[in-house]
Amino acid sequence: MVEKKGARKGKKTQFIALSSANKEYVFNNPLDRQVKYMGEHMKLKLYEDPEGFSYVLWKNKKYPLEIIEKTQNKYTIMLNGVWHIFTVETPFSLKRKKFLESQAGTSAIKSIDAPMPGKVIEVMVEEGTEVKTGEPVLILEAMKMQNEIASHTDGIIKQVKVKANDNVMKDDVLIEIDSSQ
Amino acid sequence: MEIKSLLIANRGEIAIRIIRTAKKMGISSYVLKTSKEPNAWYLDEADHIIDFTECLSDTPEFLDIERIIHTIKENNIDAVHPGYGFLSENPIFAKRCEEEKITFIGPPSQVIHNMGNKTVAKDIARKNNIPLLRGSKGTLLNSGYASKMANIIGYPVILKAAAGGGGRGMRIVENENEIERLFNMASNESAKAFNDSSMFIEKYASKPRHIEFQILADKHGNVVHLGERECSIQRKHQKLLEESPSPALEPALREEMGEAAIKLAKAVGYFSAGTVEFLLDDDMNYYFMEMNTRIQVEHPVTEMVTGIDLIEQMIRIANGEKLAFKQNDINLKGHAIEFRINAEDVQSGFSPSLGTIEKISYPENEYTRVDTGVRDGSVITPYFDSMIAKLIIYGEDRAQTLNRSTNAIRKFWIKGTKTTLSFCRAVLQNRNFRNGQFNTGFLNEELEIHYHSDPEEEMLAAFFAAFDYAREIEESEGKKLNVEKGKNITPWLLNKRLR
Asked: Could you point out which of A169, B6, B209, B335 has its C-alpha 20 to 30 Å from the C-alpha of B138?
């Protein structure tokens, strides 16, 4: 371990995992499995047990973990049955990301995506309808239940991409809403 | 005629559960193999498999009455157990069995019909002086009538499918503006789910407890109750965990409600196992809701506290045997709780999480029972419900049961799909739940976040993301890592497996 540390000397080995709530977790040399948490330096252990579960050992407790999604630097990690989304940044990329975000205004067109695969039972809005946050816009049947899908934004319906009896996959865009007003 | 062979017209954990008792009683078991899950575990447990993989009609396999009847006769099978869901409360199926001299393990078809129609059931309860909530005496013709009735009863009201169950075809209406839309939705849903769009309306008791009584009745007029199950922890009328006994009931009230359940069963000429559901309000008034004329998902908690095998009793009753015990012989001992572990993403509003169970492991000991139909490699399909397993924990008292539950859930690991385990942890952490102070409003009002994660857990997950990312960079730079193989994690191997 000592040699490896030496080998990395002078290189940027700091990584920041940015949570979906924009909380920054800074790790210096994560490959050394050292973390600093609540002022305490701790060594972590990662294992894979004979049954095929991966887990991290922290303060004598086992936490099962798996990467359930990974695209470039965006991770969805399931730990102890709860998933967390992070983007992993270097100090440089984080700085750039923050700069770009401050420059670009966020897009005014928001989409309502299918939260699960299912069948569209009824579309309750049409193009031009004004909707408020929480207002139901369509009914999706999945796993024998009819679910009301509500708008997550205020705005005007720009486009309805599905109709009754359409089968949709998870994350399919159902409706686009212009929230620029 | 004694039952020697039995078709289980069901799948998953309940099929395995019924096979277990059939084996114990020396009854040979038959199951149906469908193309939707041709490698399911329940198939391996049965003595005989009947191939239903060829699709003959649009009717789903477990709902195809005539095909199932034909199969039973063709294979000379004595009896059929419908489990829960599917044909378990279908009076037409029970009637067809009666006509064909097949023993249907459940009550008579006429009783299923009467209790299955909620308006008829309430009428019977009313005639027997069992307390009821205010509501429509019959079904509602349309949303206009619903609106009129709602004005008389007073909002909030609840619209329910007369043929409903399991939360389908049910809507709570807070005010007049919503009633037409919600009536149409519920009636639509009911038409699809139960082939019957008739609805009734009732005063909505806003935050009652859901308490149900298990009864057993034989064909000779003997009826006993096996105590209650507390099922107040629900989401959209779907039960998520159940326990017995209820922390709310004193012995006197238990006796009174149990008596009411027995009275109703006797009034309708019930036999087999059945469940009488009540609502219990803050003032300890109880109201009859409905009777379920089948085995329930949550039956194990009753089995744990009574030591009685309910499936065995159903078979014995179907055989014409008398109950071997009287009410006084029934001892409720200890405390049991059942957690339903569903393939659902709690963090996305409990949406279904389909996929393959790559790995499943759970604790095994004398106070833990796991009823499941899945094993490593099982696929959670969109065709059936999302239940993966039922974790049932027993203890001498509630406190011990809850502590054992916390430990058991820590050791219940599932890889490959999102599950409601994180929800179970959140409930167990809640102070009011631990104190027994809760009702059906628990999920919406008491539990702000429906899953539990300690702060350091997010940090650990963040670490793993950073670790994996750093490793990728190092790999791409062609560096070598010195890894103790087999002991510590092997990053390359792990990385491949995780993809």
From this structure: B209
Residues of chain A with pLDDT under 70: 1-12, 104-107, 144, 181
In tens, the pLDDT along B295-319 reads 999 999 999 999 999 999 999 999 9
Helix (H, G, I), strand (E, B) or coil at A45: strand
Q: Is B209 a catalytic residue?
A: no
26-85 of A, contacting B, C-beta below 8 A: 27, 29-31, 33, 35, 37, 44-48, 51-54, 56, 58, 63-67, 70, 73, 75, 77-84
- Check if the beta carbon of residue A88 is closer than 8 Å to that of residue B469: yes
List, edge to edge, every strand of the sheet that includes A167-168.
A145-150, A136-142, A118-123, A167-168
* Cα–Cα distance measured from residue B71 to residue A12, given in angstroms and rounded to the nearest whole number: 70
| Spatial separation of the C-alpha atoms in residues B498 and A54, rounded to whole Å | 9
CATH number at residue B151: 3.30.1490.20
Give the closest residue to B234 by CA, choosing from B86, B420, B368: B420
B375 and B354 in a common domain: yes
Q: What is the CATH number of the domain that holds B97?
A: 3.40.50.20
Catalytic residue, chosen from B17, B171, B229, B294, is B294
Q: Looking at this predicted complex, what is its ipTM? A: 0.78
Backbone φ and ψ for A31, nearest 5 degrees, come out as: -65, -15
User: Does B460 sit within 8 Å of A44, measured CB to CB?
Assistant: yes
Chain A residues 119-158 with CB within 8 Å of chain B: 121, 139, 141-146, 148
What is the DSSP-derived secondary structure letter of residue A86?
A: E
Structural domain boundaries, residue B25: 5-105
Burial B277-313 (b: 16+ CB within 10 A, else e): bbbbeeeeebbbbbbbbbbbbbbbbbbbbbebbbbeb
Contacts of B238 (CB under 8 A, 6+ apart): B166, B167
pLDDT in tens, B380-423: 998 899 999 999 999 999 999 999 999 999 999 999 999 999 99
Residue B126 belongs to a domain: no
